[in-house]
Amino acid sequence: MTARFFWIGILVVALLGATCGWGLAQETLTPGGKRFLKEAASINVMEMQLGRLARERGEDPEVKEFGEQLEMDHGNAKDDLQKVAAANNVKLPPQVERKHAGLLARLTKLSGGEFDRTFVQAMIRSHKKSVARFKKANRRLDDEDLKAWSLHYLPILQEHLDHARSLAQKLGRH
């Protein structure tokens, strides 16, 4: 009789564990998905910081406005990406990766028109790379939430690239 209650108890615990998942997030991302998620998070942090620099150091009002837009859009993207990361039990990097820190350091030393031109060229390069990464990721991602996030933000990145190109043309005339 005691053995019977023991096995019933084991069965109940197993069923409860299977139905409630013990409250733990399950990892479903492939290594490539995790890499993309972490890289996108780092890029968002960098773009937010660059946007703030543009507001503070830019000379042209349109560069300052673009900086505000970058800060807002990449802040929203970061918040939304954090939800995807949490659902997949992935910890995101809290700061800019070392490979992006050099650009921030270089731009911090500039101001006025020189900052504007250097910043806009950096935004063109950065957003070209990001658009290409997102397009590639969209073809390969298996996780539906991460893919939906990427598909949602790809047009925004393209818009940033177009805006940076437009600013480069304008600044080239001065």
TrEMBL record:
Q: List residues of the DUF4142 domain.
A: 34-167
- Which range is the signal sequence, renumbered to this chain? none
Q: Which InterPro entries does this entry report, sorted A to Z?
A: DUF4142, Ferritin-like
Superkingdom of source? Bacteria
Protein name stated in the entry = DUF4142 domain-containing protein
